[in-house]
Design brief:
18 helices, mRNA binding, Tho2, THO complex subunitTHOC2 C-terminal domain-containing protein, THO_THOC2_C
């Protein structure tokens, strides 16, 4: 999920998986030809918010059913948005998707859903504005969004956490923080093995063998290029994040997002590790972990079944860091 488009296609996700390739293409065509992808995105996101009020006074009696419906709607929303981010072109995003302030203020989406829809558009705009300096491109693209973000919470909130950091957290995804080098290496090795096996295929002529090898070689070169660009991008993001400060951001950032999906849960855990690695000013790793782990009963009590699973995945990923500190005195002393 943190890889580039080419690696995802080689891994067989969505449009290239044999068993879903044709249905995916048909779904894409139906959504584009009838301009349905934006209305569906909005309706699914709105429905998720409405479910908790669906049964009126009887919602306490049907709490388990409501939780199940909420989880199904949430999973559908994440899957649909992920599908759109893989199949829509830059032009589709530019001409059809409203701005994030319109999504929240006019269409009345929750902030997390609005960012989920807009995240791909942010990345496209930044890449379009990127000429030399990544930070300058981000500033140009995200300045209007930052002005909107400042209106989401009272001023006292921004006294503890600057809005730039809040926006950074909400606008990034796992691909901005981590490069799956092992997955790239594995895909390249598989392609190289496939290329060596072409000579053993007696049914192919010499010309066809040469053509197949050239085709695979092009894919390998593109994968290596994509890996290089991914590394560059992650480094730029880390350099930008290092320039920002944070004190307390669990309530507004971590907890809402880690419940969205498993990849968001992993993103939250990895984000905490990144700001620790960058020695972010005013960020206490010990206090952060203490507040997250000391008493999780209140957090879990407000979760649906699937949300509790995602929260557990988030904590599991966090505890991997704790165990590494536990096993190395030098690392532990550094944290303290």
């Amino acid at each position: 999920m943190s890889s580039g488009e080419l690696l995802r296609s080689e891994a067989g996700q969505f449009t290239t998986a044999r068993n879903v390739k044709r249905p995916s293409i048909r779904l894409k065509e139906a959504l584009l030809d009838n301009d349905l992808y934006l209305p569906l995105s909005i309706i699914i996101a709105q429905q998720r918010r409405c479910i908790v009020f669906k049964f009126g006074a009887q919602r306490i009696e049907r709490l388990k059913l409501i939780g199940s419906l909420y989880d199904q709607c949430q999973d559908t929303m994440v899957q649909f948005f992920t599908f759109l981010s893989n199949v829509l072109t830059t032009e589709n995003f530019y001409h059809k998707f409203p701005s994030i302030d319109n999504l929240v203020l006019d269409i009345h989406l929750q902030v997390d859903a609005a960012f989920q829809i807009s995240r791909s558009l942010f990345n496209l705009n930044i890449q379009s504005a990127l000429i030399q300096n990544y930070i300058d491109a981000v500033t140009v693209v995200m300045s209007p969004v930052l002005d909107f973000v400042k209106t989401l919470h009272p001023q006292r909130t921004w006294e503890e956490m600057i809005p730039q950091f809040y926006l950074t957290f909400c606008s990034l995804s796992m691909s901005n923080l981590q490069v799956p080098e092992i997955a790239y290496k594995r895909s390249i090795e598989e392609l190289e093995l496939e290329m060596t096996q072409i000579d053993e295929r007696k049914e192919l002529t010499a010309a066809k063998k040469r053509k197949e090898k050239e085709k695979i070689h092009i894919i390998i070169d593109k994968l290596k290029e994509e890996l290089f660009k991914q590394k560059e991008h992650v480094e730029r993001v880390r350099n930008k994040t290092k320039a920002e400060t944070i004190t307390e951001f669990l309530r507004l950032c971590i907890f809402p997002r880690c419940l969205l999906s498993e990849i968001d849960a992993l993103y939250c855990a990895h984000f905490i590790r990144v700001i620790y690695d960058l020695v972010t000013p005013n960020f206490s790793t010990i206090i952060c972990y203490d507040r997250l782990i000391y008493d999780i009963s209140y957090s879990l009590a407000s979760c649906s079944e699937n949300e509790a699973i995602r929260y557990g995945r988030f904590l599991e990923s966090l505890l991997e860091s704790v165990m590494s500190w536990h096993g190395d005195k030098n690392k532990f002393d550094k944290v303290i």
